[in-house]
Amino acid sequence: MARVLTGIQSSGRPHLGNILGAIVPAIELINQNKEEAFIFIADFHSLTSSKDGNLRKQNTMAVAAAWLAFGLDIEKTTFYRQSHIPEVTELTWYLNCFAPYPMLANAHSFKDKASRLADVNAGLFTYPVLMASDILLYSANLVPVGKDQLQHLEMTRDIATTFNRIMEEEILVIPEARISEEVMIIPGTDGQKMSKSYNNYIDIFLPEKELKKNVNSIVTDSTPLEEPKDPDTCNVFKLYSLLADKGQTEQMRANYLGGNYGYGHAKKEFMELILSKYAKERETFNFFINNPAEIEKRLSAGEEKAKTVAFELLNRVREKLGFR
């Protein structure tokens, strides 16, 4: 049985891009296949950008609540917090000693900030090694990644191959990337890729008044109400069509082209669609946020399972390196 592993950082509450691009596809994959699944919250990774401990705890709970709200089956899944399996940090140190400097210096996560080295901490520089440890510690066979993360997965493969070659034994499983050509790029409120970094995201779990303000922040042009509008260049229409069925999408397209239909009307319909489509998920999310002990119970169960797998692999690595 193949083992699939994926994780989401706890750098903020999951937004619509995280939900459509990662959470929903992962849950569908788990439900449709017989593969063993490991789903984790990458709270260690979030430390490279945020040093606020209380905020990290809140975000971690929110990420867990989002997975559970969308129906993650914890009976089929090992669901855990990265930081609650400390073996990952020990493995990271070992793998750091097998990761060549030029490879890490060529990582996109570092190169993007290489012109502002004062902004780069050591954690950001070795980020790909911690990611490699996340994968290799659990002997994952398949890792769903977007094309922007493919380089890090290739680094994981290189590090594992080097380790196995030097140790003269196939201790670390060489993972394969699972890239879906159908993975959606979710536009943000300003038309760029939806991202916490750009502060252009839609948070479907907000209370209604705040959600309305969030939806109303979507950038549109100044075409007058009475004139026809181009749906294919409009951020509101693009976001609406990601959630709507075919009939709803065709009707809104006709409204745009027919004139006497303003962006305010479109935003109102988008808001109503979020509330209707995700009514159950919003309710479940709020239940878990208001009952953190229920989240803790589910995560703790997963962490017991994850620790067993991690301890076994790490002991093999320790033995080969002379630390056992």
Descriptors:
two-stranded parallel ribbon; 5 strands; three-stranded parallel sheet; mainly alpha; 324 residues
Question: Can you lay out the helices and strands and say which pair or pack?
Answer:
Layout: E1 3-9, H1 16-32, E2 36-42, H2 53-69, E3 77-81, H3 87-96, H4 101-105, H5 108-111, H6 122-125, H7 127-136, E4 142-144, H8 150-167, E5 176-178, H9 208-216, H10 235-243, H11 246-258, H12 263-277, H13 279-290, H14 292-321
Parallel strand pairs: 1-2, 2-3, 4-5
Q: What is the SS-derived class?
A: mainly alpha
Strand order, largest beta sheet: 1-2-3
Along the chain, the helix and strand elements come as EHEHEHHHHHEHEHHHHHH
Q: So what's the overall shape?
A: elongated
Strand content: 5-15%
Question: Would you summarize the structure shown here?
Answer:
This protein has helices at 16-32, 53-69, 87-96, 101-105, 108-111, 122-125, 127-136, 150-167, 208-216, 235-243, 246-258, 263-277, 279-290, 292-321; strands at 3-9, 36-42, 77-81, 142-144, 176-178. The chain has 324 residues and is mainly alpha-helical.
